[in-house]
């Protein structure tokens, strides 16, 4: 027992020393859009949190949740001080703009990151997309429908992976609302990640809460997305269900996200 306690103490000291060796910096409210209207200038901003003095680090572009109707850019506390950079993205919201416009904003933020991350020491070949709920939906739409990034001269093959925490896989309920549909009228069209399944998409991590506690059909949507990706030959898609957790399952999911991010980086 004494040796075990000593081992844990040494591990704690080692981890503490590691965290102290790396200094982190944060820059806020940088505009990433070329749109000149006041609402775009207000919403289309990013914060970047990165390990200063470190080179070749991995970057996670993080899209916030809020149903595409609310929320603000964020850098989750749990993801800080983990040796990676996080780019927290703000975007315009419905009903001021359409869901298609919001996805375009997200694509512009990815373009900004590819063009500028090297200035902070990052590697443009180590950029992953991630988000919770509506943010996860944006990540999947960008990674599966290759046209959004292709229009910005970025191939989805350059993405390290997609970390989706409790996304909708069918057409987002806010997009359905634009057509006069309710959340209980499931639809799969061009604004559904499921519409764009393909075998050559980036690696994908899907995490949801407990199927009995999640929002309407959220686990089942993700299970179907995984199944369809496998059927078309996608080699690297993983689905995790967090038993006992509802839609706000971000903390149990964050460590799993970081582990998968490390796995992608090693390949």
Description:
The protein is an alpha/beta fold and 267 residues long. It has a single domain, classed as 3-Layer(aba) Sandwich (Rossmann fold). It contains 8 helices and 8 strands, in the order αβαβββαβααβαβαβα. Strands 1-2-4-3-5-6-7-8 form an 8-stranded mixed beta sheet, with helices on both faces. Mean pLDDT is 93; it is low at 1-20. It comes from Sphingobacterium olei. GO terms for molecular function: hydrolase activity. Keywords: Hydrolase, Signal. It holds the Pfam family BD-FAE.
In brief:
The protein is an alpha/beta fold and 267 residues long.
Query: Would you tell me the overall average pLDDT?
Result: 93
* Radius of gyration, CA atoms, in whole angstroms: 19 Å
CATH homologous superfamily caption: Alpha/Beta hydrolase fold, catalytic domain
Per CATH, the class reads Alpha Beta
Largest sheet: 8 strands, mixed
How many domains in all? 1
GO molecular function, one term: hydrolase activity
Pfam families: BD-FAE
Signal peptide: 1-19
Protein name: Alpha/beta hydrolase
Reconstruct the topology from this structure.
Elements: H1 2-21, E1 23-31, H2 38-43, E2 45-52, E3 57-63, E4 85-89, H3 99-116, E5 122-132, H4 134-144, H5 147-150, E6 159-165, H6 173-178, E7 204-209, H7 218-231, E8 237-242, H8 250-266
Parallel strand pairs: 3-4, 3-5, 5-6, 6-7, 7-8
Antiparallel strand pairs: 1-2, 2-4
Helix pairs in contact: 3-4
């Amino acid at each position: 027992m004494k040796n075990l306690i000593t081992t844990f103490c040494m591990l704690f000291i080692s981890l503490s020393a590691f965290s102290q060796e790396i200094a982190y910096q944060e820059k806020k409210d940088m505009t990433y859009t070329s749109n000149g209207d006041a609402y775009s200038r207000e919403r289309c901003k990013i914060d970047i949190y990165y390990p200063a003095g470190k080179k070749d680090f991995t970057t996670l572009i993080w899209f916030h949740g809020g149903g595409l109707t609310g929320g603000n850019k964020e850098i989750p506390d749990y993801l800080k001080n983990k040796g990676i950079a996080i780019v927290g993205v703000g975007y315009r919201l419905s009903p001021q703009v359409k869901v298609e416009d919001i996805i375009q904003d997200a694509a512009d933020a990815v373009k900004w990151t590819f063009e500028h991350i090297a200035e902070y020491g990052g590697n443009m070949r180590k950029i992953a997309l991630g988000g919770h709920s509506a943010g996860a939906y944006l990540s999947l739409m960008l990674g599966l429908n290759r046209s959004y990034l292709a229009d910005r001269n970025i191939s989805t093959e350059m993405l390290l992976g997609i970390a989706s925490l409790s996304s909708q896989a069918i057409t987002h309920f806010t997009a359905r609302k634009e057509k006069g549909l309710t959340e209980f009228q499931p639809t799969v069209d061009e604004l559904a990640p499921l519409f764009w399944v393909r075998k050559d998409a980036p690696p994908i991590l899907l995490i949801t809460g407990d199927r009995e506690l999640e929002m309407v059909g959220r686990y089942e949507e993700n299970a179907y997305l995984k199944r369809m990706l496998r059927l078309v030959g996608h080699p690297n898609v993983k689905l995790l269900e967090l038993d006992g957790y509802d839609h706000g399952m971000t903390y149990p999911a964050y460590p799993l996200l970081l582990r998968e991010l490390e796995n992608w980086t090693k390949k």
